[in-house]
Design brief:
- It is built from two helices and no strands.
- The chain is an all-alpha fold and about 80 residues long.
- It starts with a helix and ends with a helix.
């Protein structure tokens, strides 16, 4: 969180003003719903990212296995 605030060069008073404006715009009852939706969106994003990463890793493993199998075949041919 500190990095986020530092990145935008926000001080304590600016953060308080932003939170106050959000409270005025959405009201106290809507904020938990907004945070729930934000949390759900972040969770879905992380799930999708993990899925893509695992697919890429699996593809890399398959390529490596094919290379190993090709080397074994080449070695057998060389021995004959």
């Amino acid at each position: 969180m500190d990095a986020f605030i530092w990145f935008f060069n926000l001080g304590g008073s600016e953060v308080i003003v932003i939170l106050f404006v959000i409270l005025l715009l959405f009201g106290g009852k809507k904020i938990p719903e907004l945070m729930r939706g934000l949390g759900k969106g972040i969770r879905e994003f992380n799930t999708a990212r993990n899925s893509i990463e695992s697919e890429i890793r699996e593809g890399m493993r398959e390529v490596d296995l094919k290379k190993v199998e090709e080397r074994k075949v080449e070695e057998k041919k060389a021995e004959e």
